[in-house]
């Protein structure tokens, strides 16, 4: 099936894996005609970030013609929640949708391990794709996507929103300008608290067959940021990881929070019925596919790591030390860049370094807020020059929408695709692959006890400088 619109979906550098050009730049639309979208996967991320927000903010230039989800109850609920209108059809089978619809862009927000299925089917049918991170969950699926993009000459955008945050962009600017000379090493720690961190172990993310472990699902955000900041590809990875806090209780098999006899004494008890959205989206429709949103954190089916340490040698000889903790008393991150002429330190929500004016329980909810109503404050980046004065660089920061990254990502894709992208924010398959391949190599290293060469995983070979 040929897409009825003319997208310049490929350029000569696609086989080399260059940073993606926005396929929407070349959309040919008649006066008053809207871009036609399909959303595949109607969980909370798809419904809110890639669904309702697009309808609310860009309804004048785009419209959803179809929603797809294997759960018939959830996809019907999503249509109402997103506000797609009566002409948007709902499907439980992707193949039925693609037979009947001619979309301009398919947005994939299904569980991570199934991304490749819908990405490849879309490309086969001549439709460009925007996929949630991670692009996929292992090296074989990654290769399948790379091959399909090359074969069918369409484009894939990966929705890395953290790049677009003004705070993270300022770090990129400082590094691009060689403010600390030649970069030599990076230390990056990300702490998830016992509210947000625990949530991954309740859901499908707690099983590696769906998420690829948090080295893929969560850390792909962080690895992409690091690849972008360091401006090089990962070459060799060595990692350690373990499961020692969540999971591992055989007596908890099959128990969820609603039916648990320990809910009055368990510090992790979560009452899903108190969230009208979660209840309507998940509980009311779990009979269709068996997906339980409030699973026990200690069920034996959990087989991912809850603590991870990754060492990466980049092709430009920068060394990275990365740590992810999933049960910290506070949530935040800190990064330090060491260069031949100084050091950059940056951090967000580290309580002993700043006054955090929000509870740990509300922190993730505030980050996901798309209302744009949150106040902007200044956050510091500290620049230390060798034999020079310490400088504090204040950057305007708003917690909502992933630090302001969400709206900037959406604006560039849908509103201003021709705008200059000075900092190379927009991510394509090479970016998606390189972030996934660090996680895949780390997982393989943990299992083998040996370092893993990234170039051994797919046909992509690490480059000392990222392609632009």
3D structure, described in words:
The protein is an alpha/beta fold. The protein folds into 3 domains: 145 residues, 3-Layer(aba) Sandwich (Rossmann fold), CATH 3.40.50; 216 residues, Dihydrodipicolinate Reductase, domain 2 (2-Layer Sandwich); 40 residues, no CATH class. Helix content is 31%, strand content 21%. It has a 9-stranded mixed sheet. Strands 3-2-1-4-5-6 form a 6-stranded parallel sheet, sandwiched between helices. Strand 13 and strand 14 form a beta hairpin. The two termini are 32 Å apart.
Features:
nucleotide binding; disordered N terminus; Dihydrodipicolinate Reductase, domain 2; nine-stranded mixed β-sheet; alpha/beta; six-stranded parallel β-sheet; single chain; 468 residues; 14 helices; 21% strand; 31% helix; Rossmann fold
> What's the story with the biggest beta sheet?
9 strands, mixed
Write down the CATH class of the largest domain.
Answer: Alpha Beta
| Whole-number mean pLDDT | 91
Order of helices and strands: EHEHEHEHEHEHEHHHEHHEEEEHEEHHE
Mind telling me the CATH superfamily name of the largest domain? Dihydrodipicolinate Reductase, domain 2
The total beta strand count reads 15
Silhouette: globular
* Order of neighbouring strands in the sheet with most strands: 14-13-12-11-7-10-9-8-15
Derived from helix and strand composition plus strand pairing, the structural class reads: alpha/beta
By CATH, the topology of the largest domain is Dihydrodipicolinate Reductase, domain 2
Percent of sequence in beta strands: 15-25%
What does the radius of gyration come to? 22 Å
Could you list the spans in which at least 5 consecutive residues all have pLDDT below 50? 1-19
Percent helix, as a range, is 25-40%
Number of domains: 3
C-alpha termini separation: 32 Å
């Amino acid at each position: 099936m040929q897409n009825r619109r003319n997208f310049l979906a490929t350029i000569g550098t696609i086989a080399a894996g260059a940073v993606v050009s926005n396929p929407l730049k070349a959309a040919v639309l008649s006066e008053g005609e809207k871009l036609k979208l399909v959303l595949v996967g109607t969980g909370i991320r798809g419904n809110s970030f890639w669904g309702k927000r697009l309808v609310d903010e860009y309804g004048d230039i785009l419209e959803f013609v179809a929603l797809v989800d294997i759960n018939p109850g959830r996809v019907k609920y999503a249509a109402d929640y997103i506000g797609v209108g009566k002409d948007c059809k709902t499907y439980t089978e992707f193949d039925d949708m693609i037979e009947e619809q001619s979309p301009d862009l398919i947005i994939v927000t299904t569980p991570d391990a199934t991304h490749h299925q819908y990405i490849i089917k879309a490309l086969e049918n001549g439709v460009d794709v925007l996929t949630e991170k991670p692009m996929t969950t292992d090296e074989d699926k990654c290769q399948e996507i790379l091959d399909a993009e090359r074969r069918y000459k369409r484009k894939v955008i990966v929705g890395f929103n953290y790049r677009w945050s003004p705070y993270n962009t300022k770090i990129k600017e400082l590094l691009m300008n060689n403010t600390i000379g030649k970069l030599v090493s990076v230390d990056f720690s990300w702490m998830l608290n016992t509210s947000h961190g625990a949530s991954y172990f309740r859901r499908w993310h707690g099983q590696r067959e769906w998420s690829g472990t948090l080295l893929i699902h969560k850390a792909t955000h962080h690895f992409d940021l690091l690849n972008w900041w360091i401006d090089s590809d990962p070459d060799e990875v060595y990692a350690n990881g373990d499961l020692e806090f969540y999971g591992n209780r055989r007596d908890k098999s099959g128990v969820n929070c609603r039916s648990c006899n320990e809910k009055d004494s368990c510090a992790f008890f979560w009452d899903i019925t108190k969230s009208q959205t979660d209840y309507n989206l998940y509980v009311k429709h779990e009979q269709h596919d068996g997906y339980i949103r409030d699973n026990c954190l200690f069920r034996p089916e959990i087989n991912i790591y809850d603590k991870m340490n990754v060492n990466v040698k980049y092709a430009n000889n920068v060394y990275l030390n990365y740590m992810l903790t999933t049960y910290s008393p506070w949530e935040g991150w800190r990064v330090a860049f060491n260069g031949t002429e100084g050091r950059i330190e940056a951090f967000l929500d580290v309580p002993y370094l700043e006054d955090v004016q929000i509870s740990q329980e509300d922190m993730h909810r505030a980050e996901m807020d798309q209302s744009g109503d949150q106040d902007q404050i200044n956050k510091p980046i500290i620049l230390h020059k060798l034999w020079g004065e310490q400088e504090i660089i204040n950057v305007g920061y708003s917690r909502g929408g992933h630090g302001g990254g969400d709206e900037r990502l959406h604006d560039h894709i849908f509103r201003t695709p021709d705008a200059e992208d000075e900092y190379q924010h927009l991510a394509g398959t090479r970016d998606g692959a390189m972030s996934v391949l660090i996680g895949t190599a780390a997982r393989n290293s943990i299992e083998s006890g040996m370092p893993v060469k990234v170039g051994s995983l797919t046909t992509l070979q690490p480059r000392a400088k990222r392609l632009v």
